[in-house]
């Protein structure tokens, strides 16, 4: 106990050291992995990889990466937001149906408002009633689905219209790159800044790393969680707007299929589902990787079921690996 | 060698480390048939780790534990039970949501034997369909003990069993334990109470710093010898001259506590802490000091009593309230205070961002300066950049203290800040504590290492069985005096 | 909580159910035997999903993949029944369900990843599996299966579907609960450390509890098939309903407390609320919202209760 010269553990097994390196810099191996996958894709179908293809890849990865941002932020605190798919759908549907009635700008504002409302309900359940975020966001998602169906019956006759700006963002290209980047680059900059250079971002890491220590430092966690889930709802609503412009066909399940890949992208990107560790840069690469895998599965004529099962297995395998790595320290 | 010549239990050279912390280095214990052996040691001597190894809940790094001469390692609690060792742990190992009968069935306990022992232990009227959750703590201990006895164990291990029991039940327990030995079985008895040990035990095995330092036969007046063994030859931690007589401070105290009771263990604590004063707290493990510090830091709500800060009554509902009142806690377990995966700087700067008003952009320059100052003052070795979990224990502890240095200190609550850290860091912490006080801070300082009291404190209160029982000036606080007080051998409570 | 109190909770639920039945009759005087029968039929898959969830919650876990396992079992049986008799198809389906549950449990024990994360991932794995077996609704149920849950048995007003639930739960759960395994399940859920110290094989117990949940999920899938007549690969809305019923039924999230009777009565309560709303001519979508809100409210209430008991505990 009374070692005069305590040494920091120097003899570290290579596997652990590799694990540490990957944990510190998840983006580097991920980018390598991404290019390896693209290489395999090119082998599967020579000539498929082109500038246009890359633009398309990025275009469809953007909404996924945005929803993954919501997952990264909530996962930092040890949470998750399973209502993002339905919130994005609500926001898109509301915008499309209200635009003919009240004009594009107010319609988009109302759409963002739906995100705030769902976020507040999630925040209340998670932060104050202390329901597990998984169950809570699943429940609000269900209620929101019901609300959307009721809403649809009232607006079914008014027709839909998609704001021109969203269409431009969703489908246009500048210099071969999708216009969605005009929204995404500032968005990504904001999320990265929030995580790194603000007190709020720091508290997200703190809550996930050690809630008791955060409490000891004087942090009232309910305040942070409340704000977090509202922010998550806002991100989902914003994604819905972009996705509406991209797909141009509002439906009641528009963005729902994006929910599972958004969780997978965050997990692949090195974000721990247990909290305290996460990287939005990693999640962005994760979103690209998932899109490439998607293309490969489509090329290989893999059925939808295999795709869903594979994403589930990826989440489980990466999480289990993370648990292993952090145990052998 | 015939089986009966083998000791019932024989543990030799047991060592166990947790990361860099060496909890046990060379623990030994033998128990013969018909014997009751006391296992003793001061806080942090490694007793609880040794118990876990003996009962199969932990595996030793080195050494062996043999039960009835069987050299097979005890791999799990179930295996230990099968080889004849049945423990009664400090926290009852009964299932709270099952009734008594189901708890018996779970470990295949014969009901008749159980009933017999219940009657022996004055609990004959206990219903077997009672839920464990609904039983008072004393009855839980008795049920746990009766269940163990009904298994007819060769080795019975009793860990602080009597701590929650009224005197008449303690007598019964001692009688039953003695009877076990008389029947040719063996008992390992762990307790802080000399009175019980001298009545019950034949021998005492004393642990210090993770090693068995001696075995003594129990005889009248043996207490002093055991206390000496538990203290041992100590490393010179600094100048004894540090304990200079300081006058008792006058005027309004920074912190006043009156008749504070906090569930479950603190019954009645009063103290006054003045600016510029370091008040030590001396207590054995689990005497209520945890509850005292938790209540002062806003982690627990007191049952009754009064806390005053600068003469104003305070009710803390959250640590944020306590911090606002200037009370900042360095907890005993570093793991509770650190964000392991985050950097030193973030760990120290965390309180800056706590209030919603500070959720915006970080004030980098301000933060950097304050953190650098704290690191400099504490001489934190930040060569291992990055995650705080890669620092040594001593440096981690400095980070938890540095957090409040950077934030600003008015009243510092230090709960065993030197537990499990290296001597060099310890030597840096005492003068720091004094320096804080000299600059006007008030410090409440609990330590499990008694020799630190005269080094860092002006005076110390002693807590025993949930009550403040004594107050010792640092100039008179030699370890023996403190140890005797901590064991309830002096002071108003006597040998309760 | 004492034994009496726990029975009081179940009894209270039963009284609530009877009161709600009265309300139903008041709104729709024609509600009688056939209404009761269709209520029981509709509740069938919910009841099995809830039984499955209750077992894993009692052992201290949670299984988010219940609805997906039901989907797998529903399509498995629907496909098998086209090529073989009903009985072997059912037996194979029950085995498949149990195996899926055991896989869930084993993964939790082996990977040491928390239950909620493993079963979230497995939710998608089983959902994908169901889609692989049958990409769109198809297959058939045998006629006797469909008639097995239609109508009443013994006396009018005792729905076959209800008897079936009671029978299956009794056959599976009662022997387990009486056995050493049942004891170990409750012990593990109540206090895992104490259970380990008492010599309970905690990992094996947990895996077996998930296996039982898989078996109940298989029953749920078969019930679903009997109800609709086709194998449905897309999981239904059973997850949240099961969690809410379990909480309302007096099983504490966190484990160790409660039984299967309370949660199953809770299923019927939640179902009859839906019936009442429908009879009161409420828009079916609004009904979904109300139902969802009730379920979320129940779960929140349960979470607050757990928080309280932990705060007040020693």
Would you give an account of this structure?
The complex is a heterotrimer of chains A (329), B (496) and C (314). In chain A, 75% of the residues lie in helices and 1% in strands. Chain A has helices at residues 14-24, 27-44, 51-76, 84-102, 104-128, 133-155, 164-171, 180-197, 199-209, 211-216, 221-247, 259-268, 280-299, 304-327; strands at 173-174, 177-178. Residues 1-10 of chain A have low confidence and may be disordered. Chain B folds into two domains: 3-231, P-loop containing nucleotide triphosphate hydrolases (Rossmann fold, 3-Layer(aba) Sandwich); 240-244 and 251-486, 3-Layer(aba) Sandwich (Rossmann fold). Chain B has 16 helices and 19 strands. In chain B, the strands form four sheets. A six-stranded mixed beta sheet of chain B has the order 5-6-7-3-8-9. In chain B, strands 15-16-17-12-18-19 form a six-stranded mixed beta sheet, sandwiched between helices. In chain B, a hairpin with a 2-residue loop joins strand 13 and strand 14. The longest helix of chain B is centred in the middle third of the chain and has 16 residues, at 167-182. Residues 235-241 and 491-496 of chain B have low confidence and may be disordered. Chain C is mainly alpha-helical and 314 residues long. Chain C has one domain: ABC transporter involved in vitamin B12 uptake, BtuC, CATH 1.10.3470. Chain C has helices at 3-27, 33-58, 66-83, 86-111, 115-133, 143-148, 160-178, 180-190, 192-197, 202-228, 238-248, 261-279, 284-312. The longest helix of chain C has 29 residues, at 284-312. The chains are: A mainly alpha (329), B alpha/beta (496), C mainly alpha (314). Chains A and B meet through helix 9 and helix 10 of A and strand 2, helix 10 and helix 13 of B.
